[in-house]
Structure formats: structure tokens, C-alpha cells
Design brief:
The chain is α/β, with parallel strands linked by helices. The chain has 15 helices and 7 strands.
């Protein structure tokens, strides 16, 4: 690593398109999108998303193998993403996962050529359509980005810095070693030779960082222990990490992974269909952000509520009416009153007032502020729509 830098690398946890986008995923995408679009107006920012990180995980590879063995005749181009999600749920309940040392042909193909299973390719296309309708910046859902370093190169670097215990030479696993910070050893390569998502992230991030780079890690609250360790490792290697954990959005009384089911009727496509029957695309985009960012806040303590989402949609429609359409497609009004939040050339200065200590714009504080003060069309257009 070399030289000081003021760059901020935005690195959210990646998810694999093996199911529809659900409220927890939507929340994550909207928080990151709002953070990205606002922060890039005030500082140098890189949004890094690598599909291979999720495609190399055991649960993804094992699901692909399950589909190929148990459902070889599926037409992935006509299968709905909701139906794929139901297959994903049934797979996790079936106990049909084969050991990873028998599935190396999948991981090798992903590593070698960036191969993606037809089911995930089809689901990713659905994600792109839904996120495009929602106005979310595509971080590279279909990009082919080889990891910047190999497994062996990354482990060797970590071992040199006393951050890894490597037992592979004796037929055992490799561990991230955070014991100096009172953290337990964390397996990153199993005895079967398969590397988990933490090592994939390190393979990608470490070679891209220069001394003093700031890194913002965004992840599910459930992964807090892993990401606390990851931040320590990145800091030890010269980066300046900060963390933004997001709580899951419960459906009913359950705040759990999509693999357990219980999400029927709550996919992003189904929510969009309901909202767009009554509200226009701009109102849909803004209303979804008001609900998932400002109303649910960082940690979701109550389940998804369609009535509150509709309330957010109505509030968004009023905001857009007040700003004459906010200058988005379909609206021809422009804000001119100086008392509007984030008006005109003052937008970067206005946004800077919502910066977290690490220099990124806090999506909650910014979005919550829309309820208190009439937003400008510039703010809505450049950050929310």
C-alpha cells in the first residue's frame, strides 16, 4: 500500500440472484443507492460490487448443483424469480446439499471464466428491471470482475501480518486470527478447501486499497461479528474502515433469511405492481425511499407494513407536487425558492451537513429531513429519483 488518499470505497455485502428481491434486500439497495448518489456529490467515491463474491459462496454453488441434479429440465428463461425463490427455499429445507469438495468444477468455472448459472442469469435480469424501475444505480450486477488476488496470495499476505492461521498444509482449515483484539478464530477456508465469503472479500479489497483509503462496509446486522473482524483486518493493513450495519425487515413476525420462506406476496416486483396502480413512477421511487430509509430507520423493529408504505407514497406524491415534478421525466417544474433544502448550486454544501464522521452522507438523516423541510428539485432529482 502506498501514499495517503481521500478516496472512499463503498463496499456493500453482495447477494446472489437465487430468489426475488425482498424487503430486506430492497432496504439495503435503497440505503446504499442514496448514500452513493449523495456522497459522490461531495467527495471522491467508488462503489464496488463484484458478483463473483456471492457466486462463489457454498450456498450458491450447492443450490446450482441441486438445480442441475434435481431439476435438469427447467426453462430458466420462463421461470419466474418468485418460483426460483420457492425452489431455493425447498432446497435449504431438503438437506440435499453436497459437500463442496465434490463441487469444485463449479467454483473453478466461476474463477476461470466468470461463469454464472442460467437460473442466476435470468434472476439477475429481473433484478435489473426492478431496480431500474426503482431508480437504483446498477453497481454492476452482471459485470465480470475477476478477484484481484488469488486465494494463496491473500492467505500468504495475511499470514505474514499474523492475521491468519493456515493449517491447509496439514489437511486442515485456515482461520482469520483476531485474537489480538479478543476475537475468536474465524474459519475462512474449510478442510474441504472451499473459501468462504470473507476471504473472497479480502481477495478483492486488499489489492485495491492504498494507504489511508477509507472503506465503508455495509452489511446485514446478522453479520456484525464477521464485519467487525473484517474492519480490524483492513485497519491493520492500512485502510480506514467504517461500518454501516442494517437491520433486516421482518415479514410478519419473522426477521429471517429468505432461504426459510414466508415471503410470498412481498417481492419487489409484487410491491411495484401494487404501488404503480395508484402512483406514478416518480412517486413510487421517492415513496419507497421514504419508507425503507426514513420510516424503517437503520434497524427495523417492526414488520413490513403495506399501510405505512402507502402513507409514504402519498407523502412522496405531495412532495413532488410541491416541487412541480422535481425535474424528473414527466415533470417540467424547477425549484427556485431559496428556502428549499439543497437548492441549486448549494446542494453539495447542504449535503455536507448530513455527513457521518467518516465522510459519507447519512441516508437516514438526509431522508428524514425531507419530512421537516421542503426539498428542492435538485436534491430530489440527483439523489432520490
Amino acid at each position: 500500500m502506498r501514499g495517503p488518499s481521500r478516496r472512499l470505497l463503498l463496499a456493500p455485502v453482495t447477494i446472489t440472484a437465487t430468489k426475488p428481491l425482498l424487503p430486506t434486500h430492497v432496504k439495503g439497495f435503497l440505503w446504499v443507492d442514496t448514500l452513493f448518489r449523495s456522497t459522490r456529490l461531495v467527495r471522491d467515491l467508488e462503489y464496488y460490487w463484484n458478483p463473483r463474491a456471492a457466486n462463489l459462496t457454498g450456498q450458491t454453488i450447492q443450490f446450482w448443483d441441486h438445480l442441475d441434479r434435481r431439476h435438469p429440465d427447467l426453462d430458466h428463461d420462463t421461470l419466474s424469480v418468485e418460483d426460483l425463490g420457492h425452489l431455493y427455499v425447498r432446497f435449504h429445507a431438503s438437506g440435499d446439499a453436497r459437500p463442496m469438495d465434490r463441487l469444485r468444477h463449479y467454483t473453478e468455472r466461476v474463477e476461470r471464466e466468470g461463469w454464472v448459472h442460467p437460473s442466476t442469469r435470468a434472476a439477475t435480469r429481473d433484478w435489473q428491471r426492478q431496480l431500474g424501475l426503482l431508480g437504483v444505480h446498477d453497481p454492476g450486477l452482471t459485470a465480470d470482475r475477476p478477484a484481484a488476488a488469488s486465494i494463496d496470495e491473500t492467505v500468504e499476505l495475511l499470514v505474514r501480518r499474523h492475521l491468519c492461521v493456515d493449517h491447509r498444509g496439514h489437511g486442515g482449515p485456515a482461520y482469520l486470527d483476531g485474537t489480538r483484539w479478543g476475537m475468536p478464530l474465524r474459519p475462512v477456508i474449510g478442510a474441504d478447501g472451499h473459501a468462504n465469503y470473507l476471504l473472497v472479500i479480502l481477495r478483492d479489497l486488499l489489492p485495491r486499497l492504498t494507504e489511508g483509503d477509507q472503506v465503508l462496509l455495509v452489511y446485514d446486522d446478522d453479520l456484525a461479528h464477521d464485519y467487525a473482524l473484517l474492519a480490524r483486518v483492513l485497519g491493520e493493513l492500512g485502510a480506514r474502515p467504517s461500518r454501516l450495519p442494517l437491520g433486516r425487515v421482518p415479514i410478519g413476525r419473522a426477521a429471517r433469511s429468505s432461504r426459510y420462506g414466508g415471503w410470498d406476496g412481498h417481492s419487489l416486483g409484487q410491491l411495484a405492481e401494487l404501488c404503480l396502480r395508484e402512483f406514478d413512477p416518480a412517486g413510487y421511487r421517492l415513496g419507497m425511499r421514504l419508507y425503507f430509509i426514513a420510516m424503517l430507520k437503520r434497524t427495523a423493529t417492526e414488520p413490513f407494513r403495506a399501510d405505512l408504505l402507502r402513507r409514504a407514497m402519498r407523502r412522496a406524491a405531495r412532495m413532488l407536487d410541491e416541487t412541480g415534478g422535481a425535474g424528473v421525466p414527466g415533470g417540467d417544474g424547477e425549484a427556485s425558492e431559496t428556502d428549499k433544502a439543497g437548492d441549486g448550486d448549494d446542494l453539495p454544501s447542504y449535503l455536507s451537513g448530513f455527513a457521518a464522521p467518516a465522510g459519507w452522507i447519512d441516508p437516514y438523516r438526509l431522508t428524514d429531513g425531507l419530512f421537516a423541510r421542503r426539498p428542492s428539485s435538485a436534491l430530489l432529482r440527483q439523489v432520490y429519483l
